[in-house]
Amino acid sequence: MIVEPKVKGFICTTAHPVGCAVNVEKQIEYVKSKGSFEGAKKVLVLGASTGYGLASRIIAAFGMGASTIGVSFEKEAKGKRTATPGFYNTKAFDEFAKREGIYAKSLNGDAFSEKMKDDVINLIREDLGKIDLVVYSLAAPRRTTPDGTTYTSALKTVGEPFTQKNWNLGDNTISDATITVANDDEIMSTIKVMGGEDWSDWIDALTDADVLSENAVTVAYSYIGPELTYPIYHDGTIGQAKAHLKKTAKEITSRYEDRGIKAFVSVNKALVTQASTAIPVVPLYLSVLYKIMKDKGIHEGCIEQMDRLYRTKLYSEKGYMIEGDGMLHVDDYEMREDVQTEVMKVWNEIDSESLFRLADTEGYWLDFYQMFGFRIDGVDYSADVEV
Ligand code: NAI
Fold first, then answer.
1. Nearest Cα residue to atom 31 of ligand 1
2. Are the CB atoms for 121 and 205 separated by under 8 Å?
3. Which atom of ligand 1 is nearest to the CA of 55?
4. 353-366, pLDDT tens digit by residue?
5. What are the residues whose beta carbons fall under 8 Å from the beta carbon of 298, sequence distance 6 or more?
6. Residue 105: burial class (beta carbons within 10 Å; 0-12, 13-18, 19+)
7. What is the pLDDT of residues 19-40, one digit of tens each?
């Protein structure tokens, strides 16, 4: 069928299989253009189908030449419904890896479940023996814990409501949006979903099953950002979950000190992904930031970020490049003083009239559409494709 984008608010309900494949191929080409480097050899990526997880898997396979197992939760095509982008991305990744003789197996299902943990452990035992890098890149709205309780994360502030400028994507106006205050239950639930508990469970399950090698590394992703969005990312429900993630990294490292297992949190740059576009205020911040960083020639996407993380911070010749706060940082360009000073200047000024002039709205939408495989150069969108 001919696949066209169907956008509703911050979500697109269709995905283009060929566009998604080209997207993956471009990321692979980027990594290859930088050359190979020594790193992990057997890698498990949780949340491997889109965004930072997909980019991590690409750098592992095509930068470090690693065998990879990827876990994600995606929907297959059904009738006239296309599959989700992550489904097509994964299929494409597996094919590209196979073509180059690189081991890649992908599992589709709930990474929070015990069944998925068992399935992955069995697969590692059968095919790889032991894993030396575990990437934890899940971004999920809810989690069902092994006791059957389902927790749903909330996008709220803690303490006081937060009102800030917001780009209404429907009519391109800017008006204030208010993010409401979470109650204790919502804070706890968000920590359950987006905090470190499941990450820790994974590492326990893998070590108990003896499928994690000595001196293995595990990394999870976080975001801090500027003070402007602190009420969301730093102090809000997501912030509480990310604080838990940071605490979990320390706990994992000390729990497995005798085996030399090290857990890190990498603080990444704000980018358009399926997880970030759903948050109020964030699309405007992203498009202002994109414009400033592109003007300065320091803009990066997921693949550039992950390439820099693994090549220069985790597997660098100088060892682990941990900053003073105990975390790895590839948000360094975003957080540069000159960048943030300009962001704030524009932020104070921007309104509905100056939106297109002061923010990179085009870049935002391009990233958005490309996430679903649309608006990609060289793809014939009038052609019939197999979904
Ligand atoms: P994403 O939405 O692009 O990817 C999420 C991945 O998790 C997908 O592969 C999806 O299939 C998988 N997933 C979701 N629920 C699952 C489940 N129950 N079982 C198995 N797989 C499941 O998200 P993105 O943005 O790449 O986020 C990944 C991590 O990076 C998150 O921890 C996020 O907080 C962090 N991060 C994101 C930033 C951003 O601006 N997008 C900035 C800094 C950190």
1. 139
2. yes
3. 26
4. 999 999 999 999 99
5. 333, 336, 339
6. middle
7. 999 999 999 999 999 999 999 9
Q: Which of 50, 289, 370 to mutate to test the pocket of ligand 1 (most atoms within 8 A of CB)?
A: 50
Q: What is the pLDDT of residues 193-251, one digit of tens each?
A: 999 999 999 999 999 999 999 999 999 999 999 999 999 889 999 999 999 999 999 99
- Which amino acid, one-letter code, is at 38? E
pLDDT band at residue 277 under the 50/70/90 scheme:
confident
Among 94, 153, 221, the mutation site with the greatest number of ligand 1 atoms within 8 A of its Cβ is 221
Q: Which residues line ligand 1 (CB under 6 A)?
A: 47-53, 71-74, 86, 110-112, 137-140, 221-223, 268, 270-271, 273-276
Q: Percentage of residues in the chain with pLDDT exceeding 90?
A: 94
Task: With H, G, I as helix, E, B as strand and everything else as coil, classify residue 355.
Answer: helix
Ligand 1 atom 42, closest CA? 270
| Coil, strand or helix at 13 | coil
Q: Which among 365, 11, 351 has a CA at the least distance from the CA of 166?
A: 351
Average pLDDT, the chain: 96
Give me the active site residues, please: 233
pTM here? 0.97
Pocket test of ligand 1: the residue of 11, 72, 232, 266 to mutate, having most ligand atoms within 8 Å of its CB, is: 72
Distance 121 CA to ligand 1 centre (A): 22
Atom of ligand 1 nearest to the CA of 48: 9
**DSSP sequence for 299-314:** ---HHHHHHHIIIIII
